Amino acid sequence: MVVADPENGSKFENVETENYALKIFQSTLNLLAHILIGIVVGISIMFAFRNGLPLNMTNLHIVLCVIGYQLLMAEGILSLCAHNSWTAGLRVVDRRRAHTILLIMGSVLAIVGSLIKSADKNVNFNTLHGKFALVAMVFTTVCLVNGLTSLYAYELRKCIPGSFSKIPHIVFGVVAFVTSLISLCYGFDYNFFKSWTSNVGPPFGFAYAIMGMAAAFTFIIIVNPMITAFNKTVRVFK
Ligand code: HEM
Predict the structure, then answer these.
(1) Which of 29, 94, 156, 211 is least surrounded, with the fewest CB atoms within 10 Å of its CB?
(2) Domain Cytochrome b561 spans what residues (predicted)?
(3) How is domain 20-237 classified at the CATH fold level?
(4) CB of 109 closer than 6 A to ligand 1?
């Protein structure tokens, strides 16, 4: 932004103000993402526990999958972002540790949640909800294995160039996270969820509002890794 010096009227670039405005924008989006994660995960858990304990297989899979994908995986991806509230003060090495722990825990919970519901059914992956969940599960597994080569990218640099493990890791992670969102939205589209939300919330459309919130935080979360993947790809071709 070009501003005039109040002393002599000469014009100069105010880089500070520009970065500051961008910082505020990024921190606000980060806060919004955390609020939306809380609402979506909170409502899903309330729904899963609506009949109290013990949980049946469907409710247990909702708890495990939503905590795995929409809470732990989401926080795991955010933890590497420079503007993320709770990791901004951490050293890079500790951010990576937080990312690794959250993603391992999230992936395990999500995969177990998906498998227990599949085992509970006679015919598998016959619905769009199940099909997208299967894609998310496959990409999560690949991303987990690929994450290890990214973690040891420095040690493995002689056999695998760093970008070759990191770029696919980001792409697989983003695909897993987005397909889990699509599966979640198909889950929220089931009539038993829609009728429950119209009992506890506004008369109708609340389920769609929750889908919108889930889509919004997913979009906010994937922007940063996509920019990183793009920049890394450009660097490979330069
Ligand atoms: C990211 C979150 C979720 C994931 C990854 C997920 C994953 C899965 C998987 C893998 C199956 C078994 C599919 C099969 O073997 O055919 C399934 C079934 C099912 N899920 Fe989910 N689920 C999620 C959230 C939800 C939510 C929020 C609801 C409801 C509110 C829900 C309701 C159901 C129902 C009713 C079935 C049985 C019918 C079907 O297969 O479509 N799920 N889910």
Answers:
(1) 94
(2) 28-227
(3) Four Helix Bundle (Hemerythrin (Met), subunit A) (1.20.120)
(4) no
* Backbone conformation region of residue 125, classed left if phi is above 0, alpha if psi is from -120 to 50, else beta: left
Q: Are strands 2-4 and 11-13 parallel, antiparallel or unpaired?
A: antiparallel
Rounded to whole angstroms, how far apart are CA atoms 163 and 9? 48
- Read off the pLDDT of residues 107-157 as tens digits, 9 standing for 90 and up: 999 999 999 999 999 999 999 999 999 999 999 999 998 888 777 777 776
Neighbouring CB atoms inside 10 A of 35's CB total 12
What pLDDT digit, counting tens, does each position of 29-40 carry?
A: 999 999 999 999
Q: What pLDDT does residue 5 have?
A: 53
How many angstroms separate the CA atoms of 109 and 61, rounded?
9
Q: Is 11 helix (H, G, I), strand (E, B) or coil?
A: strand
Comparing 53 with 18, the larger pLDDT belongs to: 53
Name the residue of 37, 69, 129, 184 whose CB sits within 8 Å of the most ligand 1 atoms, as the mutation to test its pocket: 129
How confident is the model over 99-106, as a mean pLDDT? 96
Question: How far, in Å, CA of 93 to CA of 132, rounded?
Answer: 33
Q: Is 196 in the pocket of ligand 1 (CB under 6 A)?
A: no
